[in-house]
Specification:
With 421 residues, this protein is an alpha+beta fold. Helix content is 36%, strand content 15%. It is built from 18 helices and 17 strands. A hairpin with a 6-residue loop joins strand 9 and strand 10 (296-298). The longest helix is centred in the middle third of the chain and has 27 residues, at 152-178. The radius of gyration is 24 Å and the shape is globular.
């Protein structure tokens, strides 16, 4: 993209991988979105969505694409100072409508529409308000209710927002947190869960790293089409692998994204899909267990199944030249892959089709006098994708990190200490 007289235009001479490779008609539609003259109200709402981020070159234009200035002024005026819970989660007072010179029921209808477009959310303290989390706002944009209304060009612009603004800000934030503390771990950051079949026989496997146990601990589950893969339709054969739990699942069901699923349904769908296309389970570092480390007490609402070419986080490293490594974005699991050279038939499946992090490499084995596959543990994220589909069982997992490496683990008294566990 380049600026021309204060506007944004598509620049074919500055193509990047993926989103910029588009046909002329789609390119023209993108430019139509980005070359509009905008009312100031769109910038006002954009600042609220972005929260503490600088003004966006994309968000105000996306808002103008899907709502009129009159509709925008309604949500810009939120929250309603006269709102009470009795009015309803997404309804406003008559006094608020009168100030806008509108009928209350017309405003209520608009707010419901804006709820489905992900621009408005319900707050139990103040009622309807602008959604003020840019990452959540972005991930909710592919609502089935609004997908056709927005059009494909809208999602190209959304991808531009991620690549050019949101991802660099996330990277800068991570870098700033590591200054003077290179071993810093973001408590709410991502963590790799190993693929179930690759570690299911380990007696040391803890509840918060056992994918089946994680799903069983959730009160409510749903699966939706992954928003990252939706923005990259060329990358996945089966995009319906984005797992949401509890509050996030309820929101998505309410918004019409999907239905409720049982843990067994989710497990079977993800297991089957993961054996066809590699992806990594991710959760949060701050997932917690009870004092005995036998039960999960709090867990992530979002259980992504990420692939490096589409993931809104990992693609920054894979596609767009980030200097950060995968382990700067996600904490590794406690396991690493290992290879038994005697069982390896050198089929290449692990390196060519399963490992997404360049961990499967080749070296010369001096004791055997041959070149063969090996695992670079520095590169290995411990996801288990290579292990679960190895045709000869040459690849297995090994436990390398202590349980204390998990933030949700409670250290146990030493045997004979006299303290109760």
């Amino acid at each position: 993209m380049e600026e021309q007289e204060g506007r944004l235009a598509y620049c074919p001479g500055k193509q990047r991988k993926g989103v910029w490779c588009m046909e002329q008609e789609l390119r023209d539609q993108v430019n139509q979105i980005l070359q509009k003259d905008l009312d100031e109200v769109y910038f006002s709402i954009g600042k609220k969505i972005l929260n503490d981020h600088p003004q966006s070159r994309y968000v105000p234009w996306m808002l103008a694409h899907k709502m009129s200035p009159e509709e925008a002024r309604v949500i810009d005026a939120l929250p309603d100072p006269d709102w009470t819970p009795e009015l309803g989660e997404l309804k406003i007072s008559k006094a608020f409508a009168d100030k806008l010179g509108m009928d209350k029921y017309e405003v209520d209808a608009q707010l419901m529409d804006r709820f489905f477009s992900a621009d408005v959310m319900s707050d139990p303290e103040v009622g309807p308000k602008v959604r003020t989390d840019p990452v959540q706002w972005m991930d909710l944009q592919h609502s089935p209710v609004w997908r056709d209304r927005n059009g494909r060009a809208y999602y190209v612009v959304l991808q531009m927002f991620l690549e050019n603004e949101l991802s660099p800000r996330m990277e800068a934030s991570t870098e700033a947190s590591r200054v003077g503390n290179p071993d810093w771990v973001n408590p709410s950051g991502g963590r790799i869960l190993p693929r179930y079949d690759s570690v299911k026989d380990f007696p040391e496997l803890l509840p918060i790293e056992n994918y089946k146990t994680v799903l069983q601990s959730c009160e409510l589950l749903t699966i939706i089409e992954c928003p990252c893969r939706f923005r990259h339709p060329e990358t996945e054969k089966n995009p319906f692998v984005c797992v949401e739990a509890n509050d996030a699942a309820k929101l998505l069901i309410d918004m019409g994204f999907s239905r409720q699923y049982s843990w067994k349904e989710v497990f079977d769908i993800v297991q089957k899909a993961g054996k066809k296309e590699p992806f990594v389970h991710t959760a949060r570092n701050n997932d917690m267990m009870d004092e005995t480390n036998t039960r999960i007490t709090s867990y992530s609402n979002v259980l992504c199944n990420c692939n490096v070419t589409a993931c809104g986080v990992l693609s920054n490293m894979h596609n767009y030249g980030s200097t950060q490594k995968p382990w700067d974005y996600y904490t590794k699991s406690r396991f690493r892959a290992q290879i038994d050279l005697d069982k390896c038939i050198d089929c290449g499946l692990c390196e060519k089709s399963r490992c997404m992090f360049g961990a499967i490499q080749t070296k010369y084995y001096v004791d055997k006098g041959v070149h063969g596959r090996c695992v670079n543990e520095t590169q290995c994220m411990g996801c288990g994708c290579c292990v679960e589909t190895c045709p000869t069982g040459a690849l297995t997992m090994k436990l390398v990190d202590p349980p204390e490496s998990l933030l949700g683990y409670h250290p146990q008294p030493a045997a004979g200490s006299g303290k109760e566990e």
